[in-house]
Amino acid sequence: MSGASFILAINLFIAALFALAFLLVATTNRTDRVAGWFALAYVFGLAYVGSEFILPVQGDPRFAYTAGFAAFFGAMASVTIGIARRYRASVPYVLIGVVAVAGLAANWLAFELPRASQLRMFTYQLPFALMQGLAALVVLRSRRRQPMDLGLIALFSLSALQFLSKPLIALLTGGSGETAADYIVTTYALFSQSLGAVLQVATGLLMLMLLVRDMLVEITARSETDPLSGLLNRRGFEDRALAALAQSGSGGGPVSLVTCDLDSFKAINDSFGHDTGDEVIMAFARLLAEAPPPRAIISRIGGEEFAVLLPGTPLGTARLYAETIRAAFAALPIAALPQHMRCTASFGVAEYDRSGSLSDLRRRADAALYVSKRAGRDRVSVAADPALDAMPSHPLRNTSRSA
């Protein structure tokens, strides 16, 4: 077995391994079709490597030659489509189709040229270079510049360049052989297949790492998201709120917190059922999520309790925001409730004291919220001096101040 044949066998194994790996990722996350396109790319790669073994024993190699080209182009095109889907770009199906048809036709005609012809080699390699260049362009235009994104741009660009340079490499290494049987023992074949194996492994690993990272990000997002309202849950809120407060301590401006509690929510559940209660929660969540203030951190803390952290917002502006939400919710019809019935919510507002903590801020906003509850609900109360508005031992006892 020649060195090039050994590398081809390794490429066959690598393609099978990556096809299986991407297939497993695709079956694990059925909503994401990116991994399926990458798996298809390596399946096409398997077919291409198989054609390389078959080509030397064919009486009329034109069909195996064309099938090999089609399989390898399918691999390049599948990668490009997968990359476009991963980066939320429009898939250039028309361009891919035009290059595929033109490439197949050109290679069918170029087969009549001598095997060592530079024109024939360039005709064969150019469509692959275009697909790799297109994949690099998709990542580049996404404007994402994390290390993995930059690595993909570099690898796709390098791969495109190596396809374009193959005719010159063949010329410098003594040619690609007079026949398909001769090709497998040439220095060019050894070089070409070795470089292809390196790029195949590097690109496959990076794409696999990218998908695994996406899955971890999605899992993290799910763990920080309330499934009913679609807002952040308590954990997600606290992580982002702590970061926002730390930033405000470095000159990021004022920060205010609005806490919200749906009025008489237990009575709604008892009278109309939990499904109706869920509808009320979702309606209030949609109201909070529609056109939020810049950098607002919106969450459902639990049950019928919500919190909105407003970085860069002073107390007066935060109160105006809470009043806007209060009035909008009080006028909002909810389909699951009787037509004449409206729901209300109570609010507490506090501004961050830089000497305190997130817990202190929440305690002050909650104290103001219970002032609203005590004063008759459906209103907004504001916490003022931190020394005067600490949460009482019982939320409904010894609370006399209202905004």
Can you put this structure into words, describing what you see?
By secondary structure, this protein is of the alpha+beta class. It has two domains: 3-223, Rhopdopsin 7-helix transmembrane proteins; 234-382, Reverse transcriptase/Diguanylate cyclase domain (Alpha-Beta Plaits, 2-Layer Sandwich), CATH 3.30.70.270. The chain is built from 13 helices and five strands. It has helices at 3-28, 34-54, 62-86, 93-110, 118-141, 147-172, 180-183, 187-223, 234-252, 265-272, 274-289, 315-330, 358-374, and strands at 255-262, 297-302, 305-311, 345-351, 380-382. A five-stranded mixed beta sheet has the order 2-3-1-4-5. A hairpin with a 2-residue loop joins β2 and β3. α3 (62-86) packs antiparallel against α4 (93-110), α6 packs antiparallel against α8 and α10 packs across α11. The longest helix has 37 residues, at 187-223. Residues 387-403 have low confidence and may be disordered.
Kindly state the number of beta strands: 5
CATH fold name of the largest domain, please?
Rhopdopsin 7-helix transmembrane proteins
Give the total of domains.
2
Order of SSEs, N→C?
HHHHHHHHHEHHEEHEHE
List the helices and strands and how they pair.
Elements: H1 3-28, H2 34-54, H3 62-86, H4 93-110, H5 118-141, H6 147-172, H7 180-183, H8 187-223, H9 234-252, E1 255-262, H10 265-272, H11 274-289, E2 297-302, E3 305-311, H12 315-330, E4 345-351, H13 358-374, E5 380-382
Parallel strand pairs: 4-5
Antiparallel strand pairs: 1-3, 1-4, 2-3
Helix pairs in contact: 1-2, 1-8, 2-3, 3-4, 3-5, 4-5, 5-6, 6-8, 10-11
